[in-house]
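Quick bug: UPF0173 metal-dependent hydrolase ADICEAN_02938 output formatted oddly.
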Amino acid sequence: MQITYWGHSCFLIENGGIKLLFDPFITPNDLAKNIDVDAIRADYILLTHGHQDHVADVERIWKKNKNATLVSNFEVVSWFQKRGIDKTHPMNHGGRKKWDWGSVKMVNAIHSSSLPDGSYGGNPAGFVIEWGGTTFYVAGDTALTLDMKLIAEEFTVDFAILPIGDNFTMGMEDALRAADFVGTKTIIGMHYDTFPYITINHEHVHALAAKAQKELKLLQIGETITL
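Here's what came back:
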């Protein structure tokens, strides 16, 4: 499984020839200015919620990938349908969708959600994905919540993509507790450094992770790793 980071909360995960793209916010992000957005290819575009810093490049990328399926909550999907995206799959909390390649379950997130024009964005969410023998959790923007313990009761999570930037989401301390709740030792950090409010001290968060005996991966923008 290959994981490429394109800044903020945007990841492309590829396995067995299928590509999942999460929360594309690239062109407005100065830290990702060297990324060629038009070269991105995806089979599925998954959105955790409707905020601008998670959906800014959806339409641009979809126009280059018109066979891609947009997956999000009902309200976000409906908003993008009105903007011409006609291949979609709406979900809501607790629901699971099985595709030939694997399954996606939408789980709770504690945050807010609105679309770029101020429209109601439904409830924010995370995703638990079972794919080719690997299970991972993409938390989306969220606070720490005891609902995460339900994930460990149902799944064996190999790694979790968790927000660590604090202020608008969990910080590192709560992300470490979240990793305990979902039962994983491997954290891929997201939602940090993009704005002054969420700038982190990399040395400090790595020290916290080491003390908690967790593996913390902070990818460089454009970097690809294999898990």
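Actually, after a second look the formatting is fine. The helical segments are 52-55, 58-64, 74-81, 148-154, 172-182, 202-211. Closing.
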